[in-house]
Structures are given as C-alpha cells and as structure tokens.
Amino acid sequence: MTPLFLGLAGPSLSADERVLFAEADPAGYILFRRNIVDRAQLRGLTDALRALSGRADVPILIDQEGGRVARMQPPEWPAFPPAERFAALYEVAPVSAIEAVRANAQAIALMLAESGINVDCLPLLDVRQPGAHDIIGDRALGGEPMQVAALGRAVIEGLRAGGAVGVVKHAPGHGRAMADSHVELPVVDADAEALETDLAPFIALADAPMAMTAHVVYRAWDEAACASLSAKIIGEIIRGRIGFDGLLMSDDLGMHALSGDFGSRAAGVLAAGCDIALHCSGDFAEMRAIVDAVGEIRPEGAERLARAMATVAGAAVPASFEELVAKRDALLAYA
Fold first, then answer.
1. 38, 182, 189, 256: the active-site residue
2. Per-residue model confidence as pLDDT tens digits over 279-327
3. Glycoside hydrolase family 3 N-terminal domain: which residues (predicted)?
4. Which residue ranges form the domains of the chain, and what is each CATH number?
5. DSSP code, position 124
6. Assign residue 282 a region: left if phi > 0, alpha if psi is -120 to 50, beta otherwise?
7. The one catalytic residue among 126, 198, 251, 252
8. How many angstroms separate the CA atoms of 219 and 188, rounded?
9. 251 is an active site residue
C-alpha cells in the first residue's frame, strides 16, 4: 500500500486509472463535485473503488462541510448549514449548539454512508481571527478556542454515530492566515505565545482519528517551511505539543502554496512526517509522478490508518435522517 489519498478525473474509473490504482494500491481516495452525478452513479463509483482496493474499509474521503464547501449538492442531496450557524447558536445556548452540530454531523454521515463514503474532512478546528483571509470565514466553529473544541468534538461524535471518520483540520491552525493557500503560501507572523490560542482546540481533540496539515508558514516555529513540509512543526508541535498520534495527512499537494514538481511535493510531506500525501485533482500525469516518488506506507502510518478506520466499525447509531435534521433545525431556530 502506498501512502497516498488520490482523486480521480471523472464520474467513473478510466482504464488508465484502474491500472495505476491497481499497481499503486493507494491508501484511499478522495471525491469531488466532478466525480458526482447522482445517487446510483456515486454508489457505483465507491463500490468500484472498494472492489479495486480489495479492502472493505478503504477510506473514501469527501469535503462535505455544509455551506459553501459541499461536494454533494441539491437537488440530489439536501444542503447543510455552514459552521457559522452553530457558532452563533453557541453564543446564546452552548448546550443546544453542541446538540445541533452533533445531529447535523450524524445526518451528514448517514447521507455519506448511503453513497459508500466513510471519511468526511470535517471539522475545522481553525480559530477564526478578525481580519484574516475569508478562506476559513464562515467555515469556522468560532473565534474562542474552547468553543471550537466543544463543537468540534460534537462533530467527530456525530460523524462516528453515522458511520463516518472525521478529520480535524488544518493543523496546527489556519485561522490567522492572511492568504488562501489554494492560491499562495500564507505566512503567519504571530509569536509562539499567541499561537497557543490556535493550538488549544487541536490539543483538546488530540485523540481525533485523523488530521490534516496546513500549508501555512508559522515563523515562530519554522521560518523556512510550511507545516506540511516542516519536520519541526510536525514533530515538535503536532505530534509533540498537541500530542496527536492519529493518522496525519497533508492538505492537497496541488495547492499553489506548494512549489516544485509533484513527486518532490509528495516525497517532501512524507519526509516531514505526514503519514499520507493527499492529491486531489485527478490529473493522471501528476498522479503517475507521485506514485513513482513514494514507497510503501510506513508501518506506523499503516497502523494509524487501521486504527482510524476501526473507530467506526460497529459505531453507527440507528437514527432517522429526517429526525436528525428536524432536531438540528429546531435548535438552530433559537440563534
């Protein structure tokens, strides 16, 4: 198995993708809007990925946050609210907000499970900061660390109850970034004391099954490299100060915060300490270069992957999608 989560180009596997994926045996896959048409097609695609991998629990990821980040969209699937709605409710009724976001996450997970998707790249633990770039914005669970942690834990619990593994992101915190890492490399100048605010939710959820790194430079910790490429930040901050020992994946290798050829990008995040390199675009030439640049997944990475996927084995709680959504909406009406 190679330490890769890979995208694919369209709504079905091409002949070339089948050959490459069979050869490379990537640890898992990630889906985007371009891969999704309707319920029957999506279930057929996820079934095909499972059959190709030979693993019933192969991770099939998606970014289904709600609000502006949603790969499965109306009219085929219902819309979900952005995190900001739950943050607003927390300001007036914290317990209600926690229950609402938990019900929302379980409803999302039930929807994903119907389509054969078992990992959601959610929740964001980025603490929202005034004046920062809007790439986080209404996707954040708030601007107060313990609020973000409380709501984030409820999201993880709700996803697990619906049968999906959650991914905390973007470690060690994207909330201060003044640029969009999809477009350019953000640089954070805050000192180490100020950055404790950003770390707090990640420390509180250090037992999360999976996490995703940020393509952000934190000068207080490493002047030269963004977190995804920094052995110092991954070793001393994410594994050390935060205490995270779950599966750690990079953010997308295709984002413009990174430079160099794709093989070097993949090798770089793995050398820095990520267990998995994430590549989203489905560009075949890029995937070929990445596969050629990496070896087998490290034993500790394979163990973390197995441990993460085991968190949902038998964990699903029988629930009605409609009742969960009704509960969420009734609670949100108070905000």
1. 182
2. 999 999 999 999 999 999 999 999 999 999 999 988 888 999 999 999 9
3. 17-297
4. 2-332 (3.20.20.300)
5. B
6. left
7. 251
8. 6
9. yes
